[in-house]
Amino acid sequence: MPGQIVYEYAVLRLVPRVDREEFINIGVAVFSKEKNYLGVKSHLDEKRAMALYPGIDLKEVQCYLDSFHHIAAGHAEGGPIALYDLPSRFRWLTARRSTVVQISPIHSGLSEHPEKTLERLFTELV
Fold first, then answer.
1. How many Cα atoms within 13 Å fall on the side-chain side of residue 1?
2. What is the dihedral of CA 27, 31, 37, 41, to 10 degrees?
3. Could you tell me the end-to-end alpha-carbon distance of the chain, in angstroms, rounded to an integer?
4. What are φ and ψ of residue 27, in 5° steps?
5. pLDDT digit string (tens) for 28-54?
6. Which of 12, 15, 119, 122 has its CA 20 to 30 A from that of 108?
7. 3-class state of residue 14 by DSSP
8. pLDDT tens across 67-96, in order?
9. Smallest Cα–Cα separation from 26: which of 54, 68, 57?
10. Is 58 left (phi over 0), alpha (psi -120 to 50) or beta?
């Protein structure tokens, strides 16, 4: 369709106990090279997190999420990774990891407005 561009996205997941493979979706990262856009939106539902694993360190999880936001925005608080170009930052954010915050596989789609797509995906998936 005219005006639509390719975007990629991944879902941020809270995985408090990797051995149990249980998770809740806590955010979304959307990237569009053509629109020079990288956005992250997240929400840590503390009640759901505590129900999944009462011993979870919510402050630690929030620090992870803050880092995702800083890196996506290119803020100095994100450390050296935040200085990378947008595609490299997205690839770093979506790299497989075995920490308490993990990432889904990367998906793609078409959109005219990746910012609106981020909002839609967040509403649908988180």
1. 6
2. 0
3. 28
4. 180, 175
5. 999 999 999 999 999 999 999 999 899
6. 15
7. strand
8. 999 999 999 999 999 999 999 999 999 998
9. 68
10. alpha
